[in-house]
Design goal:
The chain is an alpha+beta fold. It has two domains: 79 residues, no CATH class; 283 residues, no CATH class. The protein has 17 helices and nine strands. The strands form three sheets. The protein has a five-stranded antiparallel beta sheet with strand order 1-4-7-3-2, sandwiched between helices. The protein has a two-stranded antiparallel ribbon with strand order 5-6. Strand 8 and strand 9 form a beta hairpin. The longest helix is centred in the first third of the chain and has 29 residues. The radius of gyration is 26 Å and the shape is globular. It starts with a helix and ends in a 26-residue tail after the last helix. The structure holds iron/sulfur cluster (2 copies). One iron/sulfur cluster binds next to helix 14 and helix 15.
């Protein structure tokens, strides 16, 4: 009996030691020095004591080892069994369609001083003039004068956004005027083809849902088309796509290297939506891609309905796989499809106590208190205007909230294990948050050298006399 207790004691020791080693190696690989230091200072004394206990021979030793094993086993059970509940995001009444002209980007990317739309908008919204004049006086993102501007690095973002804008002008193909009827197949068959094609094209996440008409913008704002025209979109279904953003690029937030990644992933996810829309169209059905700067629908709520994730405190979709570290696009269509179920993995509960995005947001744009009902949905509502003004001051799309979110950790074995554990266990969510603060800090202070190709050296001063 005593021999067996000691054998299990050594197995427990090996388990803790290998977990500690795996964590330290992962943190070294991620270059998270604070996490390495904290883990080493916690695990080393613990392992030393456990080893001493196993090696030293005294009368009650087996019973202490047995006690530790029982406590450890119970702790593992408590943290891994599906315990506790987590609230769903609640709808509390009618949801009205949102006017795209109420989205802050519309004012700075569509309205040009001197145009009739500019005059009409500010005639109806004089309360916006002061803020908008202040922001217009700041340099454009990735343009000379911006805080993070660099002659060799900033054009990366401009290049991607410029090409993206060109190729996403045409996103709404109608079926060719062919005489044959649309291709017939079961919804299961269609979904199998569409999902397979999207994944082949590079989508990390794909989900489908019935299109909630409340998520169709009411009037054209920033997007191409006649400004202020009512939007009519009678598609029955929507397909949401997600593409992961590179963790090694996002960790540079709020530097503009993160904006390069944002731009590139918008490009990638737009490409997927456009190709899938065209594929559906060639089957004889209507399909429209909704991509950066050319939306008729709100991608976030559609992605929630399509089962890609939950809406987090930071006002973005939080997915189980990548947290908010991804970009979205949508295809709406009249192709008959099977719907995915919305998912629920504890984000509302985790965000209640976490608040890291709110604490770290330099503009105070993320709500740090409780939820409130906005347009029929109980949620945390971020302040778009505060956020965007900070972008213009910084010259990048900031993304600090995305970087610091504990769900955004890279997809290594250990982080994936934590993600799995916290999905169904409310106690594990509390422990994980405590551990995240301890290992990485409540405010992320890590600094990483920019990738060589994005570094801010190498400009030769131009001689103004030339
Ligand atoms: S992007 Fe930056 S400014 Fe905007 S909400 Fe996130 S942290 Fe705040
Ligand atoms: S940082 Fe925390 S509070 Fe903010 S979205 Fe992520 S989990 Fe929620």
């Amino acid at each position: 009996m005593i021999t067996w207790i000691l054998v299990f004691g050594w197995l427990g020791f090996a388990g803790i030691a290998s977990s500690a080693l795996a964590f330290v190696v992962t943190s070294l690989y991620e270059r998270r020095w604070r996490a390495v230091g904290v883990a080493a200072s916690l695990f080393m004394p613990m392992l030393g004591l456990f080893a001493a206990l196993l090696l030293l021979d005294f009368a009650v030793r087996p019973w202490i080892v047995l006690g530790l094993l029982v406590v450890g086993g119970l702790a593992i059970l408590l943290l891994t069994l599906p315990i506790g509940s987590a609230p769903w995001m609640q709808t509390r009444g009618e949801q009205e369609r949102v006017d795209e002209r109420d989205v802050v980007f519309h004012r700075f990317y569509r309205l040009k001083p001197g145009t009739p739309e500019f005059e009409a908008y500010y005639h109806d919204h004089p309360e916006k003039i002061k803020y908008d004049e202040e922001v217009r006086a700041l340099p454009q993102l990735a343009h000379p004068g911006a805080k993070t501007y660099h002659q060799l690095a900033s054009p990366f973002q401009a290049a991607i956004f410029d090409v993206l804008e060109e190729i996403t002008r045409e996103v709404d193909w109608k079926p060719d005027p062919i005489e044959e009827l649309p291709v017939q197949a079961s919804p299961e068959e269609f979904i199998r083809r569409v999902k397979g094609f999207a994944r082949y094209l590079g989508a990390d996440l794909v989900g489908t849902t019935k299109l909630n008409p409340a998520y169709v913008y009411s009037h054209i704002g920033r997007s191409p088309g006649k400004w202020g025209e009512p939007i009519v979109l009678n598609h029955s279904h929507a397909i949401a796509f997600g593409v992961e953003m590179s963790h090694t690029m996002v960790r540079h937030a709020p530097d503009s290297a993160t904006t390069t990644e944002t731009a590139f992933k918008y490009f990638e996810v737009a490409k997927i939506a456009m190709l899938v829309a065209r594929y559906i169209n060639l089957l004889g059905y209507e399909a429209r891609a909704h991509v950066d700067a050319n939306y008729r629908v709100m991608c976030g709520p559609i992605a929630v309905d399509a089962g890609l994730g939950e809406l987090g405190r930071l006002g973005l979709l939080v997915t189980p796989q990548f947290g908010p570290r991804l970009r979205l696009s949508v295809v709406t269509t009249n192709l008959p499809l099977i719907q995915c179920k919305p998912i629920h993995f504890g984000v509302q509960h985790f965000c209640n106590s976490c608040k890291k995005c709110a604490t770290s947001c330099p503009s105070g744009a993320v709500e740090s208190g409780g939820k409130a009902v906005y347009n029929g949905v109980e949620k945390w509502q971020s302040d778009q205007e505060r956020c965007y003004r900070f972008w213009r001051r910084q010259g990048s799309d900031c993304s600090i909230c995305v970087k610091v979110c504990p769900y955004s950790h890279p997809c290594t074995l250990l982080h994936n294990l934590v993600r799995w554990v916290i999905r169904h266990n409310s106690l594990a969510r509390r422990v994980a948050l405590w551990g995240d603060d301890l290992l990485y800090g409540r405010r992320d202070k890590s600094r990483f050298d920019l990738p060589d190709w994005h570094a801010k050296q190498g400009c030769v001063e131009t001689d103004p006399s030339l």
